[in-house]
Amino acid sequence: MKLVSLAGNRAAVVLEEQVLCIADARHLVEALGGAPDTVLGIVQAQADVVAGLNVVIADVQSNPDLRASLASVGALLPVASAELMPPLPDPKTIIGFGMNYTDHISEMKIDRPEDPPYLNKSVTSLVAPGGCIILPPDHSTMVDWEAELAVIIGRTCYRVSPADALGHVFGYTAANDVSARDWVDVSYAAQGLMDTITKWGLNLLGKQFPTFCPLGPVIVTADELGDPNVLEIACHVNGELMQQSNTENMVFSTAELISYISKFQILQPGDIILTGTMSGIGFARKPRIFLQPGDRVDVEIEKIGVLSNVVA
User: Fold this and answer.
1) The whole model's pTM is what?
2) Are residues 145 and 247 in the same domain?
3) Residue 26 in 3-state DSSP?
4) Residue 58 lies in domain
5) Which residues of 26-41 are buried (b: 16+ CB within 10 A; e: fewer)?
6) Has residue 273 got a pLDDT over 80?
7) Which of the residues 50, 183, 266, 284 could staple to 107 if both were Cys, CB 3.0 to 4.6 A apart?
């Protein structure tokens, strides 16, 4: 199953080239009576709701008269005309990991990390598919892209083992961990412990600006996506291929990342985990390339789709 969030934080199910808004369809589809109106509500409600929605999908797809009735009241509409929010617009936290692809480690000329490098991403940095990545006025000249697989936690977990970790996942989506690189060089040149900590902290703040976390276009439930460790992932800027890899090239697998962070904090339904990016970032190119107003960035992940945003 694929889910999106429509304007007003209304959950909708993707039916091929159309979306079914749960709140607007409720009075015509009895089986939707207990389904939450938001994607976060669906994530928190667990398997029974997902199973019920799968039944609804089958009913709607097999009943032309019902589809016509739903379309007549605006509950079933073309994907192309739907006003999308981030598919999960209201997470409690966004967790990120860096240096998690072998090819990215090579291009950055650093050693393989012993533990996953952890960071936080502000929830206020989220922006919808089709939304604008807004360059911050004071830090607009070194803004970079990072195509990433994003994990949506579906069950509360603490100290979960890698073997059990994927059982706590609701689904997956695509993300762009947009980053202002103004402080990377000064971080590498830092002298002494405190200077290094301060400069690296500034570098992480370069990931927090509003609109610096495009997310979407859909959440694909874990049962539909299957193995998250064998997905092709790519990033194009203005149609030019900049990044291309496969999640099998992660240093730490999705399950290992979940297990690792759960040693330190309780993960809750609706938490988002960004799993790191691959080689091909603008900062590592010679000459360096950064995003400019008018650029279009497309992050594409197998089985999920294309997340597109324009720079402003």
Assistant:
1) 0.95
2) yes
3) coil
4) 2-85
5) beebeebeebbbbbbb
6) yes
7) 284
